[in-house]
Amino acid sequence: MMQFGKQGWHLGRSALLALTVLGFVPAANGQAPAAGLPLEEQVEVCADCHGENGNSTTPEIPSLAGQPALTITNQMIYFRETLRNNDVMTPQAQGLSDAEIEALAAYYAKQPVSPAPDLSDLDSRRYEQGKTLAREMRCASCHRSDFSGNEQMPRLAGQREDYLIKAMKDYRERNRGGPDTTMIDILRDVSNEEIEALAHFLAHYESQSTSQ
Amino acid sequence: MKLARSTLAPMLLAIGGLATLGITTQALAQDDEPAWAQGRPDSLQDAPMAPHAGKMTQTPKEELPLDHIRLPDGFNAEVWAHGMPGARMMALGDEGTLFLGTRSIGRVYAVMDNGDERETMTVANGLTQPNGVAFKDGSLYVAAINEVYRYDDIESHLADGNVPEPVELTDEFDLPDDEHHGWKFLAFGPDDRLYVPVGAPCNGCDVDADVHATIRSYEPDGTDMRIEARGVRNTVGFDFHPETGELWFTDNNQDWISQHIPSDELNRISESGEHFGFPACHANGFVDPERGSEGACDDITYPAALMGPHTAPLGMRFYQGDMFPDEYRNAMFIARHGSWNRTMNSGFDVKVAMISDDGDSASTSTFMDGFLDPRTNEFSGRPTDVQELPDGSLLVSDDQNGAVYRITYEAPDY
Fold this sequence. Notes:
The complex is a heterodimer of chains A (212) and B (414).
Chain A: E1 20-21, H1 39-50, H2 69-80, H3 89-93, H4 98-110, H5 124-136, H6 140-143, H7 161-172, H8 182-186, H9 192-211
Helix pairs in contact in A: 2-4, 5-9, 7-9
Chain B: H1 9-16, H2 18-27, E1 75-81, E2 90-92, E3 98-100, E4 108-114, E5 117-124, E6 132-136, E7 139-143, E8 148-151, H3 154-159, E9 167-168, H4 170-173, E10 187-188, E11 194-198, E12 214-218, E13 226-230, E14 238-240, E15 247-251, E16 263-269, E17 274-275, E18 281-282, E19 286-287, E20 305-309, E21 313-318, E22 332-336, E23 349-355, E24 362-368, E25 372-373, E26 378-379, E27 383-388, E28 394-398, E29 403-409
Parallel strand pairs in B: 13-17
Antiparallel strand pairs in B: 1-29, 2-3, 3-4, 4-5, 6-7, 7-8, 8-9, 10-11, 11-12, 12-13, 14-15, 15-16, 16-20, 18-19, 21-22, 22-23, 23-24, 25-26, 27-28, 28-29
């Protein structure tokens, strides 16, 4: 039985012509900067946008710290397989092996979520509105009752508010791509105001629940 | 309606109060439910039942659950190919290349058998759930949602180290593009036509009986569509009887009615166009609590065998080889992918179905199991399809581990 080494990848349908034999040449073009580096150097590449230890300080860029490993793995596979197309992340995933992706996912799953975001912007009315919506929409049935995520379902608690808004709007408007259509169905008729309230509640959830 | 959080409670509710349940279900706003949760009653909104997360990364050979596999005496399992995340339905080329479709990961794999070694490659990627693969006259057919491609002379191209540019047949087949139950299974019939299912785009719903919940057949170029069967909710596996040529198929029944009913099915088409019951009549005469009424099961063809509730019988093949004992000849091997809509898992095995003397029905028993540990309710693999090799051995794909096992037989020396 042959053993498989690093796999080569190619972009999209145009790649139907290319033949990839497992264990041989990785795609020559479109290799991500992080591919093949040791983990500690890979996470420096990620940190440029996703922050030190995966706690993002960049607008609309998600925190990875404390995400379930399978959440990160699946999204990276979707990017690499060009099933989810994002100008930044699809190229960043090219050439990463399954094992590299799993190691990165395991690393970020273990990183602690940064302590309480600045609470000065907490709007208790919107927080309560978001809390009610989250209950009505049963977010916890997949994302867990503390919104810490589960398997392929991401952590929402403590995520950047602007990223949560962007992600939910992208799902609703079918701009996000990816094979999983669950969130598209759920957000179909949710208004901007409701999305903003949900995001406000979830972004502040951790700090609020621990400070009580 | 208050419900204790116990395993049995949902069953008692469903059996004891079907009428109530129907009303409850109807009252729910379904628009913002994900596809898999359609029909979930209010009382089960927080129940821990949801489709199992698939795995889209390679499983190392040493981590494959080969040691878990149990088979009747004389049978043996080995790892035949691995490292193909999500590998599902199989088709065998004339030169011995095995082709495998996938769902989430969007790839089609090819495995070339070089005797002791197998060489595995990705021949297509970036497709939307390319689950259906079939091989005919040197060409590989791939069906995704909603695209159909044909790769001509694929095995000679692969031998030269390349993949032929596919011929796109999407417009010719003109299949609906619904995501829900829109993934395909493909097989050529003895009439040289290509058989393609079109599943119901829902858990349970009213459908146009000439469009959804059908099995269709086409000329290989996508022309001359015929409806071969109606009322088929979601079949992901069929094969043709080696002697009668009749089409036998598996069918997956509705979720959330109960953990214990209706049963999934093994069916036989004796006349083209027969109706198998969806959405009003399930399994062997179970009237749908919401869409069925008295007489819903009149003129419905009942299953040849019941495969168990939510067990997800998928790929199946008639066995025609010489390697296994005579009793297996013209019997069907059926891969049961395993349940998610039960709190006690069920399936995750391969059944064998032997046809009755009159040819109308079949009796089933377990052929391969061990992936499901009933003590912990955990599973280590998910049989997805079966494929006989020319030497009479049987391949079983496992999409949870991206592996293919080969089952051989040698008469035991008792």
